[in-house]
Amino acid sequence: MPSLIRPSEITNERFFRMRRDLLVQTLGLAAAGALPGALRAAAPESAEATSATLKYTRNAKYSTTDKPNTFAEVTGYNNFYEFGVDKADPAANAGTLHPHPWNVTIAGEADVTGTFTIEDLLKPHPLEERIYRHRCVEAWSMVIPWVGFPLADLLARFKPNSRAKYVEFTTLLDPKQMPGQSPSLLAQTGLHWPYVEGLRIDEAMHPLAFMVVGVYGRVLPNQNGAPLRVHLPWKYGFKSGKSIVKIRFTERQPANTWAISAPNEYGFYANVNPKVDHPRWTQATERHIGDGFLAGRRPTLMFNGYADQVASLYSGMDLRRYF
Ligand SMILES: Nc1nc2c(c(=O)[nH]1)N[C@H]1C(S)=C(S)[C@@H](COP(=O)(O)O)O[C@H]1N2
Ligand SMILES: [Mo]
Fold first, then answer.
1. Among 43, 84, 243, 281, which is most exposed with the fewest C-beta within 10 angstroms?
2. pLDDT tens track for 257-274
3. CB of 300 within 8 A of CB of 272?
4. Domains of the chain (ranges plus CATH)?
5. Average pLDDT over every residue of 98-117
């Protein structure tokens, strides 16, 4: 219960929004297509119309057969605190982000380091579409048709050395483009910028780890992390850093933004696990965005349904301790 764990400002905010989401579900508003704010303000038709189409092939092997969420849901119900804390905020506010031109710095324990244009980074990689499950730590889920390429293919080009045990991903820091980073908003979000996430190198090299540049066959909208974001479908969404400007290979486990803000609530691993609850809510079930009231909550699957592929990465580990 929140009163017992002295939640920070940010966790209060999250708790408030979760309760509101639950309320929405309870009232059946989502069923009526009347999800307030978030989904209605979303769905900017213009985003669909203006974003350039991509050339890609479908990857059935790594795609779920679950029905994808709509374009409106995927681009209108987002977490991207650099643009505000409500689900509709990123779609409404991310127009201030300029994803072109864009550079990415490669640093740390690798033979090839330096700053590269995004064109140089993307050029060698054929794009594919993968329909992935997406599970937020706030116990909601979606199914999203991402376009991108294996993260491993990108990382391998920099020849990480034997000390590269982890990879750190850093989001752009620029309060002019990302108004949620201005100091006056620190109290509201409680997060320290830039947003940083990290993976163990074997997780990053896993064939499911995906470097995302598009969604629904189109260039990634700003609110989804343009021009470059990662997605690890077996982990809670917060592991998937958006609008990445730096990739650093490290010997030590990187500190990640949410774990810094509330280490008892958000761990480094963040593997989807129905048996390890968040201190303030259950992870055993989830609300699937777009499901009607009558559908009820869905059971959460171990590793978000990807256990066959990824469980071996964690064999012998106590997943309650390494949550
Ligand atoms: N830079 C940055 N990356 C971020 C976040 C954020 O606030 N800032 N939110 C994370 C969380 S909690 C989730 S669930 C996913 C949401 O991705 P989506 O909006 O494309 O669904 O992005 C993740 N990456
Ligand atoms: Mo999330």
1. 281
2. 999 999 999 999 999 999
3. yes
4. 7-314 (3.90.420.10)
5. 98
